[in-house]
Structure to design on (568 residues):
């Protein structure tokens, strides 16, 4: 699409194009791969148990309350289960829907900021085709729903700032969405939005004037009215247990304790803001350079650019100091990052493509094309490794051919100076990646899901004995078998928030558990299989390996003689 095409389209038609593109990118094929370990099954199992117990207030897992997240996302999952059944599509339905909404909301915010259709379209396209956005839209996690609620709330704040006639409406809508964000993932649903707003108002020197609006008090009361009832109910029902887990463990412990020490670095989020925008990452480098040059140039600095800066900083300042770091924590900043990249690319196209002015676009586009062209060489070099996971090379060779074709298309656009088409062609990398991903189901599923190995267990054992599982697999096995569970994790420290199941982290606990059952079935990773063999080496038990699927071992552990007089 060139400038004339975009500029001449109505907003409705542009949004329709974005809607269709988003459905294809973010929802098509969401049912092909079963729920993955350990997080997707965690959220879906919680919604499943809420329905089974007919308790629509308290999140539950393994039959007991759990407070890792508020109730909002579980409500959505329960609705999806009622509509589509207990399926992968149901699990990923709402993240995909909110992903689509986020693309449209980004178009709206970019238009509200700059009133340029192509810039707004590019913003939405960049976001929709970024790898991190693709991943979170296709995952049963709270992050997409939460982040888009934050994005919409930030958009409504800017509406209330920009248009005084709509100030009251903007504040009310912003407050409503903030309340819903809190019910989805907690207090950050408020602090992200307020942090962004305060930074922006300070930078524009409009803080005192904006805070004089009495409607802000009504907005704050509205946030409390939406967020407090569920939290108060949980406190009344579970007292200190709720406070300790929900506030003490989930909210405040993350500030001081790292879940993944290896990624607890000062540069983790900065590198993620670069890598997460793939295939636009290389273009983001000159985009950020241009952005900060304008920010530091008083003549070129605008309130719109300050708003985008405030948005990114308003997220970053809350997540960076925390010791617990995850890629999803910085995710609410990505719509702003997409707009920043679009501002740069649209400026490039508006300048009638002066070749000497924007050499970085050609250089980085050429690097991307070369990387695509090099895929066959990488495949040949890694052939042995690939064959360990894939059943054959046909799909890999197809991916190589498609990558080379896309590289050729980009090269043609570069040589013929089809600059707009070159920019849009970057999104085709995502379509290529998604195509390969959808055709890779049979290769991927055994390694990411416990369904296949759990199906084998369901076929051979109909008892109600407790199943032993590795820590990483226990939620998935529970989801696919509905069996009582125990976890083996020798030397482990337990789950981030405690689960009401036996946690066997030393040899004696494992022995006592095995002794308690005539026959034990286990789904374990290789290391835990070795633990079991070592622990039971001198005990009268047989250990039978029944099945091996995707790194998971299905074992049957059986007594071979009477152990009544056996002394440990």
């Amino acid at each position: 699409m060139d400038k004339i095409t975009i500029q001449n389209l109505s907003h409705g038609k542009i949004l329709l194009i974005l809607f269709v593109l988003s459905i294809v990118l973010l929802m098509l094929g969401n049912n092909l791969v079963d729920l993955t370990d350990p997080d997707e099954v965690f959220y879906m199992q919680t919604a499943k148990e809420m329905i089974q117990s007919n308790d629509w207030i308290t999140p539950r897992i393994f039959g007991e309350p759990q407070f890792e997240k508020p109730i909002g996302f579980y409500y959505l999952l329960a609705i999806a289960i009622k509509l589509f059944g207990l399926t992968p599509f149901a699990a990923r339905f709402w993240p995909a829907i909110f992903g689509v909404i986020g693309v449209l909301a980004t178009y709206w915010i970019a238009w509200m900021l700059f009133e340029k259709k192509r810039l707004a379209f590019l913003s939405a396209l960049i976001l929709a085709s970024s790898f991190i956005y693709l991943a979170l839209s296709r995952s049963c996690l709270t992050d997409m729903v939460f982040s888009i609620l934050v994005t919409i709330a930030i958009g409504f704040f800017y509406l209330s700032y920009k248009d005084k006639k709509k100030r009251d409406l903007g504040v009310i809508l912003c407050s409503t969405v903030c309340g819903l964000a809190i019910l989805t993932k907690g207090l950050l649903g408020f602090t992200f939005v307020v942090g962004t707003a305060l930074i922006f108002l300070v930078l524009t020197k409009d803080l005192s004037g904006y805070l004089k609006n009495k409607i802000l008090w009504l907005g704050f009361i509205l946030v409390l009215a939406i967020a407090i009832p569920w939290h108060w109910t949980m406190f009344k029902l579970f007292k200190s247990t709720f406070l300790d887990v929900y506030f003490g463990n989930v909210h405040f412990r993350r500030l001081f304790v790292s879940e993944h020490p290896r990624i607890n670095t000062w540069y983790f989020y900065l590198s993620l803001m670069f890598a997460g925008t793939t295939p636009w990452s290389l273009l983001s480098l000159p985009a950020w350079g241009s952005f900060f040059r304008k920010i530091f140039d008083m003549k070129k600095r605008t309130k719109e650019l300050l708003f985008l800066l405030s948005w990114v900083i308003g997220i970053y300042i809350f997540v960076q100091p925390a010791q617990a770091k995850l890629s999803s924590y910085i995710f609410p900043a990505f719509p702003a990052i997409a707009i920043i990249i679009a501002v740069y690319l649209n400026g490039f196209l508006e300048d009638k493509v002066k070749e000497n002015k924007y050499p970085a676009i050609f250089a980085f586009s050429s690097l991307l094309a070369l990387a695509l062209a090099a895929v066959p060489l990488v495949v040949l070099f890694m052939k042995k490794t690939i064959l360990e996971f894939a059943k054959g090379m046909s799909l890999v060779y197809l991916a190589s051919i498609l990558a080379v074709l896309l590289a050729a298309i980009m090269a043609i656009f570069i040589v013929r100076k089809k600059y707009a088409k070159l920019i849009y062609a970057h999104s085709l990398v995502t379509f290529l990646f998604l195509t390969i991903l959808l055709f890779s189901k049979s290769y991927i599923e055994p390694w990411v899901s416990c369904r296949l190995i759990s199906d084998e267990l369901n076929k051979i054992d109909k008892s109600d004995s407790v199943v032993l599982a590795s820590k990483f697999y226990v939620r998935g096995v529970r989801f696919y078998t509905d069996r009582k569970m125990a976890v083996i994790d020798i030397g482990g420290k337990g789950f981030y928030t405690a689960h009401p199941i036996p946690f066997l982290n030393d040899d004696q606990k494992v022995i006592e558990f095995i002794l308690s059952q005539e026959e034990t079935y286990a789904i374990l990773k290789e290391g835990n299989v070795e633990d079991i063999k070592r622990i039971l080496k001198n005990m009268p038990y047989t250990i039978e390996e029944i099945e091996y699927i995707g790194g998971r071992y299905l074992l049957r552990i059986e007594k071979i003689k009477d152990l009544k007089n056996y002394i440990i």
In short: The mean pLDDT is 92.
